[in-house]
Write a structure and sequence with these properties.
The structure is a homotetramer.
Chain A (H helix, E strand, L loop, with lengths): L3 E7 L2 H16 L3 E8 L10 H7 L6 E3 L8 H22 L3 E5 L5 H9 L5 E4 L8 H12 L2 E4 L2 H9 L7 E3 L3 H7 L7 H4 L14 E5 L10 H13 L5 E5 L7 H14 L5 E4 L4 H10 L2 E4 L2 H10 L3 E4 L12 E4 L3 H14 L13 H13 L2
Parallel strand pairs in A: 1-2, 1-4, 2-3, 4-5, 5-6, 6-7, 8-9, 8-11, 9-10, 11-12, 12-13
């Protein structure tokens, strides 16, 4: 019997954490030939070169496609999407997949969706139907309208996708594959292993730390410098804790945020901050699990955070409409409020685990369903 | 008071007919500075150089953007969209419009939608919420999810756009501006004026003729040659009528259709066929109004056709789910059935006018509403 | 022993005629794995789809790359070159050739040269060192400076390439492979076979005809309509001859020339003109050999023409500085002069064969030398 | 009288230093309207955002064009050139300059040359005719073949450009405008002003320091990590000197070099190294003038260095064939040899000033000559 060719496109470090367990399951699925394309910021040092982790995990990308036009303005973000369509169209034409699988809502994801659907290749979309608070929402829903099959992560998302006019027979909720990462590993953190990540600053992972990850908000492009400086200043107050900061993702405005971090770092060298570019999905899960509190606007705080029960202070509007668990408290870009909220969350400590985004068995179920859908 | 800058992108001859009366109204709206961009097939000889008609109509395009990658395969169609994003992003960045206005559902339209929304420029979309029977549906609905304001053409479309999760306060139905063309002119056809269009073959517009316009169907890419040959062969049977054929649009597969037409033409030189590349919206309206019967798969047969009462034989699945009036009868790609259906429609003659797609006052109402939305 | 991978890029119908016998020899060279890329206008109906002839000749292109941005203005010509670099870079990266081979001087050729040399892939250039009378000269010499090995077509060209600072040990003159086409076939023309080319108009190849091929001149962009109308009008005078016209190549300005041809054709239907888009290199050779006189500005009139002794009237400045044989007489864009010159050439009849551009054994010698250069 | 529109494209920090005094002179030339385009790495934080210096110097760029495809591989370098052609073609089409002026030999410069010449815009090239030791040579000479007017920097370069077949009447030697920078300022360095550049590490510019700037060598792509580590290790030996390191330029392979610098820096925090991304041309001149010795492969060591008499150790083959003064000594990528050569140069101290690359009056003379050439 001929194998079905499923082409997966991973275009950012966040993408990978969310799709890894689907890729693992597809790789072991005897019905499937997995064609992996790694592209965009996944290949770039500035954004943590997730490609290295992917290869270390045993995957063999058939294409490495560079389509980030450097600059991280709104215009280059749009143009990178255009270039992505050009590059991905060639790859799909040569690889002739039976279906393309893509994840989430980032601006580059649109390139995958257009290149596939315009070439009449069925599109499988993970994590449709969610809402957050920025341009990603539009992109995510637009991709839903382009896609053929939908593996959503929550019941509410399922309803939303169907309500948008999608055939219910093509919408499946097996939970989010990013939760799979959490249930397949020992969540203990290991100082020795963590050394491999380099990073700047000193950190003892066995001692308490606060985690910060704050991405640009494309709809308020231009105010990132201020936004992130407030958070860093708030964290400075917590002298008794180590502070772990992840560099932002590639969205328009990342330059401002990076600059704010660099300026802050230069002025506050003695303040117990460490800075990192990327972790494997597993090590990131451990870091999130073991932190005293997390602050910023990463959707992982909501997704993996709700399962792990991590106390989170969610900053600004980037995730404001997203379905979330009890571990989340929100606040504005205001240092004083942030300090207050962080204190509350530290005092509260770990929350009970919630399975809002699944119970950690999504990958295999999605892989099985793909067999059923495409084996004829 | 500062004028609001509204940037309209016209990217195909069909686009223009549908947006012309909005452009005219915006041009005369004292609140508005109209920025016109003309791009893609609108600039190309093979597709009728609609730019010439646009300039003749008194418009002054600020940019002429070439972004059609020749080949008309599914892959070049995707890549042209990518290149379109790159080109339009530059234009929007330089022109700094307060809003971008785009129309319908063609593949290039997506380029406009992404370039605008990714740069945080509000997007106004005309003719959302409709359904037809091909890839255009996905594109149209995806654009609806990206857009900020929606000027739909029918009540059913309005419901559909709202049902997809759109804020009802941002959805307006003033009918379709393509109907405006029909109500502002004398519909009598003039042999003398028509001579300017050149075309090959002899035609006396005062005598009976059947009109044919059949575009590629991207979802059945590869079968266009057969599809169009059936229709031409059916028409050949109607020896007592003149036959007027329009060359197809630029969708993937257009090459096959053009080839079928050329081969047919070479073999049937004596058979009273004429071939044309483009007409002004007004002259096209006259042709559609005066034809004995129209056959093919153009949406204009449904849209303008329902208002004009033109008897239409709709071929294949390209428009199969589209809301339509009584003037439409459908049939498969089968010569014999086509002949039968054409005979029935000829026998029936003109239908009563229906206002399903509006009453011909859309342009001014849309222009007024844009003032209200953007004047602050 | 590992074969050397030689990647050839054919990007226009003219390219193919000039490189075919090198490709044939490389294909049969046991040291070589030929990787053929076919791109740009070679794939397009409007320019004769030379790809069909290439496949019929037994070649199997590994990539078909579309990178013509339609419009044929000076700007789209530049942009097509840019897109060509993007597409060819991907192909070279995937195919990993030991060397890239390219031919001549057309604008798209620059894309091949940059994509190869910027990726540190040795570049073999055919037909460097020639001079003509337009932008091609600059492009040709610029490519010479980028290339590693040079297979020139004449002694004068060899001197010129060396004089430009090239290492003489890397410059070889085995003549032009386009002459090989002439020495390997029966040059008799066959009405029956010629029917397969379609074309419009009636032609009996057994009876006398004048051949016309006139391309745009990019340095006088904008005056093509006038230029070609003069030639067509001159030809009209020769009522006793059939006239065979080839559509122009894709250079900027081709639209004007095509328009002039179409307008002329529409007005002069009774005048014994036939129009064709493409011939195989062999059939083109036969046509050139059997014509009473050739007029226009094609370099084939000089190259193959000198070997065949075809009487030629060379129009305008496009080839003005090119080394040529006795068969060439030149004239301005002036109908009356053209008529005079054509009459002179018809009166003169065939010229003696000259071997200025080689004796017809270039392909094999080039292939052998490539073995020597790259086998280590 | 109508001004002549001269469009200058600055596409890297090195470009700017070399063309600044021409820009200043053109800006004050009453015959000229200067159109400045700033593009590529000039806009990027990673490469020092030279745009900030340009704006501070009083220039007003009409276009900021992003066309760096991030990745810095040989393939992205080629593709960035392709994208550059697309972007620059649009800009030239809109700005309609009477001539385009470009400088030197970098890969992006080719994009400017093609976009201009393919659109029939005369191209003025600065610094043609030089030789160095890498791909830049080919690019430089290819640009010479494309260009219309040549402002070279040395007599030897002039001979070379003419020898390549250029009309001597279009080749002018007024010296290199980068020398103009040196003769128009006080070369004393000021600790206070230098603080504005940030940088990491501590430096007292009043005390002795060794300067290092080592760029990737595209023809030995892949070995940059090793190459630069040798130099850094050699410098470590000079404990009594401060070490000032500039981050490399954007050529393919820059990622390896940056990585080597980061790894070295992390391991040798106590070793008196400082790291910078960009300086204004003037401050860079001061740094080069005041350093005890310079090591690396920057052409500024040869160009400005010969005028300033800076003792230089030139590493590897990147500049191996370049005409240079007595201040240069060369060596391989070998730590021990480097240490030896640096010691020799320190011992020798400053060299006598040489005017090989001009006497510092190039900008005004070039500007005057441009008036003469284009005023008609």
């Amino acid at each position: 019997m001929k194998k079905i060719k499923i082409c997966a496109v991973v275009a950012s470090r966040a993408n990978y954490a969310r799709i890894k367990y689907v890729l693992l399951a597809l790789k072991e699925n005897p019905d499937v030939e997995l064609q992996l394309i790694v592209g965009a910021s996944t290949l770039l040092y500035r954004f943590g070169k997730a490609i290295d982790v992917i290869v270390k995990d045993g995957f063999n990308p058939l294409r490495k496609l560079y389509y980030v036009i450097e600059g991280e303005t709104l215009t280059t973000q749009a143009k990178s999407t255009g270039l992505g369509i050009i590059e991905l169209s060639s790859a799909f034409e040569e690889l002739q997949p039976d279906a393309v699988i893509t994840v989430a809502d980032r601006f580059e994801t649109m390139a995958t969706a257009i290149a596939a659907t315009y070439q009449n290749i069925p599109l499988i979309h993970l994590q449709g139907g969610e809402v957050s608070g920025n341009i990603d929402d539009r992109v995510r829903h637009a991709i839903t309208k382009l896609a053929d099959y939908h593996f959503v992560a929550t019941e509410e998302s399922k309803k939303r996708v169907i309500h948008m006019g999608t055939d219910p027979a093509k919408v499946f909720n097996f939970g989010c594959p990013s939760i799979d990462v959490l249930t397949h590993i020992d969540l203990k953190i290991d100082n020795q292993i963590m050394k491999n990540y380099g990073g700047t600053g000193k950190i003892d992972w066995g001692k308490p730390y606060v985690l910060m990850m704050q991405h640009p908000v494309t709809t308020t492009y231009g105010s990132g410098y201020f936004e992130v400086t407030e958070t860093l200043s708030a964290l400075k107050d917590f002298t008794q804790y180590q502070k772990v900061v992840l560099w932002p993702n590639i969205d328009a405005g990342t330059d401002d945020i990076s600059k704010a971090i660099r300026v802050f770092r230069e002025k506050n060298k003695e303040d117990n901050f460490s800075f990192f570019r990327n972790f494997s999905p597993e090590d990131y899960a451990r870091i999130l699990n073991n932190c005293t509190c997390a602050i910023g606007n990463s959707s992982s705080f909501i997704r993996e955070g709700s399962f792990l029960g991590t106390p989170v202070v969610m900053v600004g509007g980037r995730q404001e409409n997203r379905e979330h668990g009890k571990n989340i408290t929100s606040c504005d870009y205001q240092k004083e409020t942030m300090i207050l909220k962080i204190k509350q969350q530290i005092k509260h400590g770990k929350y009970q685990s919630e399975t809002l985004f699944g119970d950690g068995n999504a990958g295999k179920q999605i892989s099985k369903k793909i067999s059923v859908l495409f084996i004829t």
